[in-house]
Amino acid sequence: MDLSSEDVIAVLGPVDETLVADILATGASVRDLAEAWAWVNADEALMNEGRRLPAGKVAELVDLLEVDDETP
Predict the structure, then answer these.
(1) CB 12 within 8 A of CB 37
(2) Which of 1-5, 20-24, 50-54, 65-69: highest mean pLDDT?
(3) What's the CA gap between 42 and 19, in Å, rounded?
(4) Nearest to 24 by CA among 55, 40, 49, 1
(5) Are 64 and 19 in contact (CB under 8 A)?
(6) CA distance 11 to 72
(7) pLDDT tens per residue across span 25-48
(8) Model pTM greater than 0.85?
(9) Radius of gyration in angstroms for the set of CA atoms belonging to the chain, rounded to a whole number
């Protein structure tokens, strides 16, 4: 199932409309976004659990979220 703007806001909280549009353009699912958000916020913990590094849409979302996180 593709994401909606409401899904993005439910997972990330209030975010820039441009980021929402970029995320929606990936065609990712809610599950993909939730996993990417977890990687951005707790990558060391996930690696310690033995999880593989993100790939595909999750990796694309991580890149988008990390860029947004660096913006003042």
Answers:
(1) yes
(2) 20-24
(3) 20
(4) 1
(5) yes
(6) 21
(7) 999 999 999 999 988 887 676 666
(8) no
(9) 12
